[in-house]
Amino acid sequence: MASISLDGLVKQFGNHVVVDCISLEIAEGELFTLLGPSGCGKTTLLRMLAGFALPNGGDILFAGKSVVRTPPHKRETGMVFQNYALFPHLTIFENVAYGLRARNIPQDETRERTYAILDAVHLGGMEDRYPRQLSGGQQQRVALARALVIRPQVLLMDEPLSNLDARLRVDMREEIRRIQKEFGITTVYVTHDQEEAMAISDRIAILSGGKLQQVGSPREVYFKPVNRFTAEFMGACTLLEVVPGGWSEGATGLIEHLPFFLDMEIPKSPPFTIMLRPDWIEEAGDDIDRNRFSGVVRESTFLGSSIFYEVEALGRRMRVDVSSNGRALSKRPGERIDLFFSPQRPVVVAP
Description:
With 351 residues, the chain is α+β, with helices and mostly antiparallel strands. Helices cover 24% and strands 34% of the residues. It has helices spanning 42-50, 92-102, 107-120, 136-148, 166-183, 194-200, 218-223, 228-233; strands at residues 4-13, 16-26, 31-35, 57-62, 65-66, 77-80, 154-158, 186-191, 203-208, 211-216, 238-244, 253-255, 258-260, 272-276, 281-283, 292-302, 306-313, 316-323, 336-341, 347-349.
């Protein structure tokens, strides 16, 4: 297994910069996800790691050794593609064993390693079937087994679950996480699905327009986004501009001319922007005075354990998720609702 270092990596197509001077450190044995919208450069970055594309600048190091000029077949990487890329005319055993035979591994060792990896991905007993006889999830396991059987230093996965239905994606991401930890292999995983990234990753790098926006654990990028893009990309949120002032009774600042209390370090350059996730905004009881504001419900949806409201308040529409506490809808469209948020909840985000 190998650590990975990216040092000022750049990739251009003509005058268009797809990957813009990205530097990253990925630890040995880490499951590291490249997350971002379509066209952000994440797949191009993965292709450079695999050796399928050459960078225009910068360096790629596996275990401290540059591999930029090393051809793909000598980089000791395993690749799992979005479309599985299985050979339809070969059995499952033959698909998985293909990489070992291409490396002239002895026949007895090839059989032993192939059967062992099929058992590890829960496909034991299916070795004589053909890809067309398997479900999408089983085909993805075959692709994963084929990548792992060669014992690569680095495992690269390009949107591996995008062709599966929602329920199967959840099952397979849990399986990929289990297998990755069992083998302890350094893995770089590409996806545009925020929930998938948070469920599977040790750390996440968020990309936009070829630039690195933030790197951190799933909790860090969700609860403490550093800028507006990361805040909005990682899930529903409300962004509010705060003007410092209104210090009557200790208020920190004004939002839409109302005083609010914020328990945080205030940026030196006013005004500044704070972020609130939908479940950080709560319905206010009669005993709540601080950070209380009112709005009008525009949409309401009962979701079982919670109620989703779209509320017009503080000069914008915001999403609010409150516990149902066994109730049906308590507020209907057009009704007034009183809300508040804890002074400790908001996070300051950069533009």
